[in-house]
Amino acid sequence: MVSLGCPKNQVDTERILASFALAGWMICEDPADADLILINTCSFIESARDEALAEIERAVQLKQEGLCQAVAVVGCLVQLWGRDFPRRCPAVDAWAGICEPDHVVALCEKALQRTGASGSLVQRARSDIGPRLRITPRHYAYLRVAEGCDNRCAYCQIPSIRGPLCSRPMDEILDEARELHDDGVLELCLIAQDTAAYGVDLYREGRLPELIRQLSALDMFHWIRLLYVHPAHCSDELIRTVAQTPHACKYLDLPIQHINDELLERMNRRTTGEGIRRLIGKLREQIDGLVLRTSLIVGLPGETLERFEELMAFVKGTQFERLGAFAYSPEAGTAAATLDGQVPAGETIRRLDELMLAHQQIALEHAQSRVGQKIECVVDAASAGGRWSGRTYGDAPEIDTIIELTGRGLHPGAFGTATVTAANGYDLAGRMDVRDDDQPAESGHA
After folding, report:
1. Is 367 helix (H, G, I), strand (E, B) or coil?
2. For 247-272, how does the pLDDT look when each residue is reduced to its tens digit (9 = 90+)?
3. DSSP output for 161-184
4. Residue 299 belongs to domain with CATH number
5. Is residue 354 domain-shared with residue 243, that is, in the same domain?
6. Do 316 and 211 share a domain, yes or no?
7. What's the total number of domains in the chain?
8. Chain segment 336-359, per-residue pLDDT in tens
9. Domain boundary among 329, 344, 367
10. What is the three-state SS of 189-206?
């Protein structure tokens, strides 16, 4: 199975894999050994669709060479293209949009019976209940608290693909958290399209702070990390909860997208530049040791050079510890695709390069400033030369930087205090000896 896209997609992949395993299938590491190649797709932007199509083409080529019998495609790309998918990808044997894992298994079994291509283009009920065959290392996992989104950002197709906000009952989430702990998980990464909106549909108010407190009260997890917190929904209560709750990781993924008021309004982001500045001030004032990640969009229609320069000045002044940026991609069916003031593609890429170069300097300086400090870290995996790859509390799995560790007692899932000895570009190197009485000097939790 090939899993593309974000951690939310990865949770779907893990549930699908579990359904196949329970149905008696064997999961192959090498696609050339498989009867079936299954691709879980992302379609957030054009580059994601291009990646999905390239993976489909590779799988179809293996089938044509006689190395597998069938190719199946599921997820966001099928959901987006709907009835047009089989026309665009005629060599695919089975396809389904956002649906139950057992339904995917049934479609693929039908395809392997050589009864012709089988597909499902109707969105079925979604459920986060059931087993997962996790593909993350044993000590961390993604826990999805809600599906869908109600924000209707002007550039985004997610609501039309994933549907409206659908929060999970808190008891159900706590039960899954216990199961994950029993499977060895020590770091929980809470995810949703908009994590901070958790509970608004189900309880008529945001319940993310309460959920964090209840997860922490289980006393099962070393870190509880928040990803995808919309700035319009980052409440004072949430800030206090992250600052004061044991095990709440002092890291926040806060995608602001832009700082210019006119562009924020065009994006339908439900916040203002001044509101974002005040929020960041509160976060850094109230959460000691906070590491802040954001994401930005460059080249949205209406982004004049002056508005881009405003964004540049803001990024240089704010000094985000972690930052990702995207070139605007016009998506059919979104409000932004029809806006006036379209920025030429070449100019958008130039601006993106300028922005990332500016942040590169900030990130390098931040890494260098960590040398000599003691920071709480986790070991992720063995590396070359007797070293170990790990992360500080300020680094989310798979998207942020790493720290290369040496020391005694290291093993995947070990937490401890590392002394940073060097900065290697964005990444760090350090020494960490794991002992039972090891107490972190600069902790990732309150």
Report:
1. helix
2. 999 999 999 999 999 999 999 999 99
3. HH-S-EEPPHHHHHHHHHHHHHTT
4. 3.80.30.20
5. yes
6. yes
7. 3
8. 999 999 999 999 999 999 999 999
9. 367
10. EEECCCHHHCCHHHHCCC
